[in-house]
Protein 1
Amino acid sequence: MLSKLFVLFGFIAADCVQAETGRQAWLRYAELKGPSLQQYREAIPAAVIALNKSAIAENAQQELVRGVRGMIGRTLREESGIPKEGAIVLGTEVAIRAAFPEWQTDEALKPDGYCLKTIRRGQLRYTIVAAQNDRGVLYGVFHLLDKIALGEAIDSLDERQSPYAPVRWVNQWDNLDGSIERGYGGRSIFWDDGHARADLNRVSEYGRLLASLGINGCAINNVNADPRILLPALVPDIARIADALRPWGVRVAISVDFGSPKTIGGLDTFDPLDARVTEWWKSKADEIYRAIPDLGGFVLKADSEGRVGPSAYGRTHADAANVVARALALHGGLIFYRGFVYDHHMDWRNFKNDRARAAYDNFRPLDGKFDTNVIVQIKNGPIDFQVREPASPLFGALERTNEAIELQITQEYTGQARHTVFLVPMWKATLDFDMHARGDGTPVKSLVAGTISERPAGGFVGVANVGLDDSWLGNQLSQANLYGFGRLAWNPNLSAQRIAEDWTRLTFGDDPDVLKTIAGIQLSSWRTYENYTGPLGLQTLTDITGNHYGVNVEASERNGWGQWHRADANGVGMDRTVATGTGYIGQYRPAVASMFESLATCPDDLLLFMHHVPYTHVLRDGKTVIQYIYDSHYEGAAAVRQYVRDWEALQGRVDEQRYSEIRAQLEYQAGQAQVWRDAVTNWFWKTSGIPDAQNRVGHYPDRVEAESMQLQGYEIVSIVPWESASGGKAIQCEQSQCVASFRYDGATGWRTIRVQYFDQNNGVAHYSLSVAGELVDAWAANDGLPTQKLDGSSSTQRVIAGIALRPGDEIRIEGVPDQGEQAALDYVEIGTDRE
Amino acid sequence: MLSKLFVLFGFIAADCVQAETGRQAWLRYAELKGPSLQQYREAIPAAVIALNKSAIAENAQQELVRGVRGMIGRTLREESGIPKEGAIVLGTEVAIRAAFPEWQTDEALKPDGYCLKTIRRGQLRYTIVAAQNDRGVLYGVFHLLDKIALGEAIDSLDERQSPYAPVRWVNQWDNLDGSIERGYGGRSIFWDDGHARADLNRVSEYGRLLASLGINGCAINNVNADPRILLPALVPDIARIADALRPWGVRVAISVDFGSPKTIGGLDTFDPLDARVTEWWKSKADEIYRAIPDLGGFVLKADSEGRVGPSAYGRTHADAANVVARALALHGGLIFYRGFVYDHHMDWRNFKNDRARAAYDNFRPLDGKFDTNVIVQIKNGPIDFQVREPASPLFGALERTNEAIELQITQEYTGQARHTVFLVPMWKATLDFDMHARGDGTPVKSLVAGTISERPAGGFVGVANVGLDDSWLGNQLSQANLYGFGRLAWNPNLSAQRIAEDWTRLTFGDDPDVLKTIAGIQLSSWRTYENYTGPLGLQTLTDITGNHYGVNVEASERNGWGQWHRADANGVGMDRTVATGTGYIGQYRPAVASMFESLATCPDDLLLFMHHVPYTHVLRDGKTVIQYIYDSHYEGAAAVRQYVRDWEALQGRVDEQRYSEIRAQLEYQAGQAQVWRDAVTNWFWKTSGIPDAQNRVGHYPDRVEAESMQLQGYEIVSIVPWESASGGKAIQCEQSQCVASFRYDGATGWRTIRVQYFDQNNGVAHYSLSVAGELVDAWAANDGLPTQKLDGSSSTQRVIAGIALRPGDEIRIEGVPDQGEQAALDYVEIGTDRE
């Protein structure tokens, strides 16, 4: 008994003392202040009653107590019956109606839906949270707490909320060893060293975050599945994780390997039409459901990027999906079959080949052949989470198949949580895109929700990949993507602005300047990132065969992976027209296809995704393509520098730790944006031969290249790809320490010195900067960027502001290598921008 | 070379990332904002020149660079000569005059003094920091930085500052094992396990804090000296510490044991008149000065509280002081001979005995017999750092002897850093007190500074006892005492308000509400503490034979320690009059003595220190003594509760960590103030038999005694002293867990529950509180209070606000003992005050 109390009291104590680290995310329940506090103290009744007695319902009641205690400083009484005083009453519709026969409703709630309603009995006021099921009660409680946190009135409620779609899931690409594929928030909260973690507190906290958004399912291991997940020894681990998430109404799912019957099942085949394989999947499902009766189901990636699949036996994806689906069906389980299937050994020399066609080509012919508990899980675009893609044509093509849209919360191609990119506007662009599947009015959101084709299951899957870091995602501002995914999955009709503002207020409080700045950064951040990494539908111009992070314009070309942009001396873009190209555009319904097919109507934002055009092609704003590429990169890089300035104006208005973390992140991003800007613009200048009309590209009057400095010990090296270093060269030190120096020849004044150096992940080099013999800065290259090389991923900027320079001053950088890191330098820029 | 750079860069990096922990104290150099930042950016020249090349002068230059970088974001150029542009020029008067012949001064600076002066040459503006010595240059730099931090103009300076007295020292009562006698800020920054710490960075940081105040000496070991400090093996340790403090102009001193010639010197005597002893001290001094040529000297506590002294051989204190003084004189060293000498085996039954007489009786006859490098170090009052004492009569009695006043920064009798008590007003009361030593106009400050008797040495010694905690003193607000001591030692004419406000602005920034609240708490805090611990000159009514912390009204009585207050059934106070008492008052000069001697003129604040009066004696405000004792205790306890409320209004305006620490400290203090209030008032009620006119004492309508609750497992115990627990009783648990419960019989409403429990230091008991079956709070008794017993020192209050109570509710406390801590409880109070 007492031990249970002390588990609870752990929560209570934690509430009191925790600093703002981001771990509580948007559920901080920060104490209200002033008139707002007084108002809620008057409005809040003293008692709370949970009419249902499930674990979820009791959790809902505790969450309400916790939230009210945090925000209003009052501990609600947990009563067992309706008291003779005002109260908050939680319950399913059935239970509420028994207690309040006077409560009339004309419209039925959907599963997980809820209503908040004020009922008066004479002088007494009851605040009702009624729901279709226990999960809905929990969601209603979170919504009531949100209202308090956002300062909305709660004394006269009459509100109904139902989810837009039944499937609102997250996937975690966590490996059983505790690493996370494309995870940027630390190690796995679920797994370590082949088993579930001993301490699953963070899983429970994650369940709370998910429940607050209405997310009701979570796949807990990588879609590139380790077959061992289906070993009997792992079942208790999965069950423990399910136990941690269950009170939050989150069902667990697992990703499975299609070869499992053979690799761990002892069969000599995994042919989906083999009866032994059918039986194996059934008996495996039975085994797992005995331990976890409410398992959500399986996720399956087959015949993709090296994963085995039905093609091994000449079977179809429907054969593969259905053999698993039938094993799950008896238990009410779903199978999410990933539509991300393509050939990554395509012949790049064939201009008719097109990876973008793959999902449609593979799945369209199978429409109607999938069992009803199969959901085809389709990435938002036809390629792979690029900075901008059109909606996948497959959404509009399946009429008798359950669909879910797969959105990537973790920022694989959008800065890997080192760049602030708020993805909600991007997702909304796809969700709101009308596929004209049955005439007008069939946006992607309605197709995946199954409301058009009246499919029983479907909805939204977000690849979240949270980790053990306090920030969950490796960047405080990136939390808004998890939040925004959940809000959209519940209601995709919400505006990006509403979501950004709600998130900011819940996460950082009510200061209007803080709200304006943070929401402003978030809402412009996608366009900003696109501007410096891949405008006009070029996709993210990164190292697509490597880390998917730093700039590498040609990484997409001349290989079988098919992310080609086809830039050459004359023009750029992938011709996907029906008339002269790959015919991809023909996969869209006619109304959509005709818009994309014609240069006159194709949106400029997707121009180079759909068409190959000369650099001199004129866009709607009157600029040529090449000049737009130059301009957008300079705009994007300048925008991030402005973010830093905007953020710095919030010092003292945001808690110290998060202020410092975000400031450092934005300043780093500003340096990286400059690397991208210079690399992409120089690459296109060299390739096109057309100079920048504003004469910026290739001309850096404030810059001194490292290779042109006086060097002691440093040697000059060529960088690959050449565009990722200024002038294509850098200097590196293979001695115990080296020096690079030069004399300042500018005017007298206060200056900002920017040192562009390389921070690889195979050592911790040290640098120091002296001016006229005086040490003015020193730093360690100790970040964990995803490269061991000197390239665009390791290129990092150190900003030293407020230096008094005089003509003739020696500027001297000393570097001390460490292990594989050779204290490399690209250049120094001397400007006035931070003064 | 590079390694030196990286030591420096450690500083640079630290400046960027450190959160507000208190470790930077008032030297945070927080970045200025808005117009203020712009103004200084325009006013600050780009260059700084240190004309002198000593370690202190170079340190001064670096400190200026550091401060300007932190506050203004600009890195000054360290030039080697006067440049042809505006500059800040640092140097001794001689050096400055050589560079600026046009600089005229008519008044000489004292040692350590400095001036700030703007000199114009055509369009060029030079900001001069000129000083009598290098130390003064450093002080001038700190003063210039203070001006920037406080927003004062720096473009037209003309200011001279000289110290009030040559001696401005701190003593540290650090033991060689790393513990600190009466230290509340953690372990020693100097010592660990018998030697100087390997890492002396905190010593250097401490030196910086001291230098910023103009403090120029530091005794680094306990006055209750371990003889081993004089062993040859310790000399390198002392030298390392001196090296760390030297760049800050702080000379090291050591405390020595007078028996050393015998205990560690191999002699069979320590008779100060024995030639071998004389020679031993001389040769020991020579040995130490060879390693530390600028050692400040020795501190000596002899014939006091068990320390050996000259009395062993029938010699005088002058004999003792002089034998050491002569050994030091050749090296320019000083000896601080402590005046804190008294008999702690006095017969308490003799009403003529009086410990307060001791310092005068011991030292007055020796006036003129001390060598010129002896300083008699006299505590501010005649007893021992009590919450209020009169100025020691010895200050006015020595005419041919150097004096220093010993003030205690560490709060031995004033709450041990667990209570906020700003001591500057108390110190000022003594420093400004006119001793009438030579007619009017001889306040204590002028006597100790030697300005009256023209003594060569003298001044101010503060017992600081900082430790390794980030807060230095164990309480963020207590830092103001170290700061205030330093400011007063430089200029005792400053007002307490000025010091409190400067400290607050430097330490917490410029928010006017923050300034008002913090300065308000500080300035009233001494009176508040006095009000609940010992008003009217009673002294601190604590456990004076034990921890000097919690309440124990009779601890002073019926023993030989002589802190008697002589309270009995009829009256209270120590009769120190000449007419009928101990004659102590006769030690003052006539003008002072006559004021104290007469009830008509004796200040009420010191009434019971000077006189024994009946409880019904009427004070100047018309109250009787007994009613004043009751009222002041209620006022004091209420004031601390108000501090908590005032502080809570600053949430979000003070950095998180310090906000939380101070909030917790003040809330704890509020609980302790209530313990003191109840203990003292009940003790006097019981002793005097006179009830409180307001009927508060002994009547607690909101209180339920633990001993009257329903107990499961708990047993009732009597507490010693009885007054430190409500009703004299508590309950404790000798089983694995126990329960105490009762039913609430008050009205319906939101209530605050206060649980008074005992937090001893010999275990970590756990408690939980349930109301009507609902867990509403749980906590661990994990503080390190200075007692293993159930008493006033361990009595602690847990405040649980915002609880909805209904008549008949069961209130239930579960306790789980741990080791020696038995989850004891005193009472529960249910009120509305936090609602």
Protein 2
Amino acid sequence: MSLLTVGSVAFDAIETPFGKTDKIIGGAGTYISIASSFFTKPVRVVAVVGDDFPKEYIKTLEDQGVDTEGLQIKENEKTFFWAGKYHNDMNSRDTLVTELNVLENFDPIVPASYQGSEYIMLGNLSPQVQSTVIERLTQKPKLIVMDTMNFWMDIAFDDLMKTISMVDLLSINDEEARQLSGEYSLRKAAKKIMAMGPKYLIIKKGEHGALLFHKDEVFSAPALPLEEVFDPTGAGDTFAGGFIGYLAKTDDISFENMKKAVIYGSALASFCVEKFGTERLLEITDADVQTRVKEFHKLTAFDTTL
Amino acid sequence: MSLLTVGSVAFDAIETPFGKTDKIIGGAGTYISIASSFFTKPVRVVAVVGDDFPKEYIKTLEDQGVDTEGLQIKENEKTFFWAGKYHNDMNSRDTLVTELNVLENFDPIVPASYQGSEYIMLGNLSPQVQSTVIERLTQKPKLIVMDTMNFWMDIAFDDLMKTISMVDLLSINDEEARQLSGEYSLRKAAKKIMAMGPKYLIIKKGEHGALLFHKDEVFSAPALPLEEVFDPTGAGDTFAGGFIGYLAKTDDISFENMKKAVIYGSALASFCVEKFGTERLLEITDADVQTRVKEFHKLTAFDTTL
């Protein structure tokens, strides 16, 4: 099934206890589209970069199965740049630099050939850009998934609430769920957030996995306990990309199938953190993904005979 | 199979955002023995209280299936008392009062009738008391499980390391695993801790569940996402009691069966936190426990066909 993603395509400079990078390719749109391309092709991308963005990397995305017709290249402008430094526990980070550049006036143009897309993944971007994409769709999709972050809760709350009310599934982390709902209990937070519009909610808990909510149902997915988290950048976006890619491939949005999609997303995220940036995602094969999904099963399955 | 537990039997005064209690019955030994009594009876208890401890509560334990022959009652002495206050997030607490009283000179006498016990649960107590119990056993048990806490790492490190080297399974929380191993990654921490002696390790993660390690195997159990955690006191001890009780009942210490034991322990712990102290544990039935174990399965199971 057809999948349209929107999100930043960016330069990142990352520092972790294991090392640091120069400007490498990152951005939610990049991670989402690579991750979802494991399941469905082509992945349609709406995004913007400057003319400093390497043509070879656009080729890399295309080789991976990404349709870049919706990737705008702005002459004489610069690509969005983010630099961050992770603390020793890898669970928190400081933003060192944010240069919006082309993102500042990003007008998310949806090419005519993208119309009719049935699965929509709105990566973390300003909620106003996210809602514009929805408004520009001429046909109602089967599923709209939205990722966002606390930054937008702080500076664009009304826009954010409007966009949240337009989507089917919201994906945020545990701290954000608590901030958005004002509830510490994630179960209570989920109820309040689903009352804001989305029928489904995913709460990402980093090294503790993720929770999927729908009505009174809950599914708890673990994270794979890794010896080393080398670079967490993009893990949440990779998770989202794997999740919606799997749903688009199977074209089944039952809760049971969403559980599997959460596991596929988690499996891809567990690869993402093993190297800097998108490096590991670009190495692995479908067989690697299947092997890891089996590891997730082994990690959680228990005999239920009494 | 026969189960011997040792642990504090205490008075607790607890304050949470939901309310506060006067002195109620608590202590690791209390929670462990009640939880394990759901699976195996009698549960043999080695513990000490003062003559201020209510006779009716000893009767309550006995009615639950606890053998109190090893419960020493010290005339003219007072029962161990702990008072604590939970923060709003319920994940951290301040200790307000610790009165060791009878625990100060606790000599853990193992009654002759307790000899031959095959499963041993050493609840959190001074590691010196825990190792004394092991040394007083005349027959080698099938499995010795030890719970401890950071307090002993700080004040009795050598004793602690000695006791850890004598047990088969250590149960601690994630912060303690990091402190004991000096490793942030729980997978690395587990390797280092198992090299200290125990063949198995359980890392408790509170609202994020628990991990069970053995050699290169890992099992991840979720916690049930609850609307409200009313009082977390005793949840870890209840988990440990349910875990070893289930193993003693089934007399099977394979890794597969330990996974189930972790789920049974988690199920009991999820009840424990619903009311103050042991109140909820004393209300529930075997059928309630089975129903909750099924909820855990529903929470984590996913279809593995590709």
